[in-house]
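Researcher: Quick test of sequence recovery. Tokens follow.
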């Protein structure tokens, strides 16, 4: 067992933040923690990392209590950039982590190379952009090659290029044997790395496998004067919209082959087709409601 959270509760005064939270991670995988601001995501991660006490409940990491300092040889927690020191360089931070974790300078520099921060390692953090700070935090988190990586908003402040790099890194780490528990507001990025999501709502945990909610839509642009919907009436395809030469269908890969065959047989030319997967955002709106339009 990599992580086990059992009947965890936390309150601030009379306000209950977490209520009877239980979940586990038994094998290397990526699990996302999602909820609105103030829902308790950071509180839960801080309790798992033994930075905050719980009112009740227990947590074990690698079969040991989260209060056992030895477990942090195999666990890393990527927090926000408030843990960084402006007057130190990026390398100073990594050297400290390396000394605490008892890893070689070679391993420290390998982590920096993997994230791609070697060009600004010797600059003081006060000169870092938000994105550079996020990359330093990520490097600090993987120096010890953890079996469990806990991450609080790892994509915050990253431009699209670096967000893609981090996403690919997370997938690589999971494939290499690292379990990852991350919180993020970036639902589109979550959809790209996992369908296993823990939604926090009113202090309670709702376990989800978004594969049960994911919908695949194909947006077709057709060169035809005919009504293509009539050709699809005997199929299992769901027509989401049909406006002019734009046709949006909900279907799986097997049905796509069938639809393409029908269009080809009827001489309908497909000018463009775009695949869109909708998962966590739709489920989030079901649980928490759609955002109100600005006035």
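Model:
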């Amino acid at each position: 067992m990599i992580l086990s959270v059992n009947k965890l509760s936390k309150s601030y005064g009379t306000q209950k933040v977490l209520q009877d939270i239980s979940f586990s991670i038994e094998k290397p995988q990526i699990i996302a923690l999602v909820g609105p601001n103030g829902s308790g995501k950071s509180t839960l991660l801080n309790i798992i990392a033994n930075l905050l006490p719980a009112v009740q409940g227990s947590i074990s990491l690698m079969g040991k209590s989260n209060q056992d300092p030895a477990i942090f040889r195999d666990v890393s927690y990527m927090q926000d950039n408030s843990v960084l020191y402006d007057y130190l360089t990026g390398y100073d931070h990594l050297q400290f982590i390396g000394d605490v974790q008892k890893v070689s300078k070679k391993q420290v520099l390998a982590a920096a190379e993997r994230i791609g921060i070697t060009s600004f390692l010797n600059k003081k953090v006060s000169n870092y952009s938000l994105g550079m700070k996020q990359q330093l935090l990520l490097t600090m988190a993987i120096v010890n090659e953890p079996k469990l990586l806990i991450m609080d908003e790892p994509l915050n402040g990253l431009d699209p290029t670096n967000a893609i790099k981090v996403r690919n890194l997370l997938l690589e780490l999971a494939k290499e044997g690292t379990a990852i528990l991350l919180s993020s507001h970036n639902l589109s990025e979550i959809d790209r790395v996992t369908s296993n999501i823990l939604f926090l709502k009113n202090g309670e945990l709702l376990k989800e496998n978004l594969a049960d909610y994911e919908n695949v839509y194909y947006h077709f642009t057709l060169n035809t004067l005919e009504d293509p919907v009539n050709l699809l009436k005997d199929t299992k395809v769901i027509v989401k919209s049909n406006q002019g030469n734009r046709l949006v269908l909900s279907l799986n890969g097997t049905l796509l082959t069938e639809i393409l065959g029908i269009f080809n047989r009827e001489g309908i030319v497909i000018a463009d087709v775009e695949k869109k997967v909708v998962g966590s955002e739709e489920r989030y709106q079901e649980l928490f409601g759609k955002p109100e339009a600005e006035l």
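The radius of gyration is 23 Å.
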